[in-house]
Amino acid sequence: MLTNTGLLNKLTIKQVLLIGLLFRLLAVFYSKGYGFHDDHFETLELVDRWQHGISFLWTGSNVHVFSLIYPGFLYLIFKGCHLLGLNDPEQITFVSRLIHALFSLLSIFYGYKLTIRLTRNKKTGIIVALAMAIFWIFPFMAVRNLREFVCVPFLLIAGYHIADNKFSYRSIFLSTLFFALAFSVRLQIVFIPVGIGIFLLFQKGQIKKGLAFAVFSVIGFMLTQGLFDTVYYGDPFASVAEYLRFNSDKTNIEMQPQGPWYQYIGTVAGLVWGFPFLLLAAGYIYTARMNPASKMLFWGSLLFFAFHSYYSNKQERFILPFIPYFLMLGIIGFKELYNQYSNKKWLVKSTKFFMGWFIVLNTIALLVISVTYSKRSRVEAMVYLYKKGDVSNLIMESDNGSPRPPLFYLGKQFNYYELKMNDSLPVLTQYIDKGTYPLPNYIIMSGNKHFEERLNRLKIMYPELQYETDIKPGLIDKIAYQLNPKHNVNETWHIYKIKK
What we know:
Layout lengths: L5 H5 L2 H18 L7 H4 L2 H8 L17 H15 L5 H31 L2 H13 L3 H5 L4 H4 L1 H11 L6 H17 L5 H12 L4 H17 L1 H9 L4 H10 L2 H5 L8 H9 L4 H11 L5 H19 L11 H19 L4 H25 L6 H13 L5 E5 L18 E4 L4 H9 L8 E5 L4 H11 L4 E6 L3 H9 L9 E5 L3
Parallel strand pairs: 1-2, 1-3
Antiparallel strand pairs: 3-5, 4-5
């Protein structure tokens, strides 16, 4: 039943790649903005400061807390756009989304190739490729500058090479090289190759492969992040050491969202729409009993999942590199289980129900999320002011703290002023009069809570305040606020000009 449908029998990998490309192109054109803080402020904003010679350091060290290899890639995209005469921030981000979308197609192709290497079954490979192509969050994530997702193609390519059943120094080296590239994008993925290395060293007949994997892993690191950090900082371990220093500090850890050890089980279950999690989890666990290559990827990915479950800092995006491995191994393992117990009526009926449930919900979410403009009001407010062309500085006003404005879309980088409802106006006036930052000529009021009271207070300070426009949030931002107003801010931004 899992592979005997006419559609799956007729699909080729080229067709699946085209399907994946279609939804990624929808996201390129319509899914503007950014999804999380880090996929803007630790990428686009960093690169914008970098190319203008403005410091982007924020941990008190002269070494950036993340590797600069991926921002360096974005730096080249920026420079290429400028050489082509594309200087508008929206044009640059369009090019970036397009390049990321095309790059993410490697996840579909190597998910297919890796599955065939694990199962020797092209039909199963097509199912996995289709999952990589149209799993509901993948097209949306594919066009983001999010480290946790940008590393995924490298992870699947590395998995493909290390899963080679024949002993080959070339395959081992290529695997470690791509794991090193994934590591340079997202440091925590190190637990996947570490898990693989441990498995190989303790697997009968695989010690030689395990030792080669360990040696080549060091070489791969030195050829990628180590080389970059040596050239940039004079120390091959500079950014790794800074990352470990910052993230081992108890104060820094406690600043981040905390959660119980089982939180990510719920996160993964939610991403696959609940009921289907039971099938995929059963299949994922079953791969620990299959062939050595499947076992190896199971233990490697499980170590990554276990680390994040243990580590108290819980942000949903952290678990994203695990999802493709979970989907792939879950599909492979459950297909084997299903074939063994297909005579059980309860299994056949429940599988049909769970698959139907997943297909309906995944299709709806895919069609909506692929065209979602995330953080629309924040981005469009900056785009509006960019087109005005006369911004000297901003006052970000709010009831209790406004989101950080994405200044990249404004085309300028500066230190702006902040004003909360309970802040003293005289203090702000004195702050502005000191001339530490450029004088503001626009005010952005975020959110509608106590709006009239806040506006009247601003008019005491600026009697000739001139209304410009309101920027409304996108659909998903509205839903997020309505579902959980305590933890999500109202994203409506009101723009006023300070007349002098």
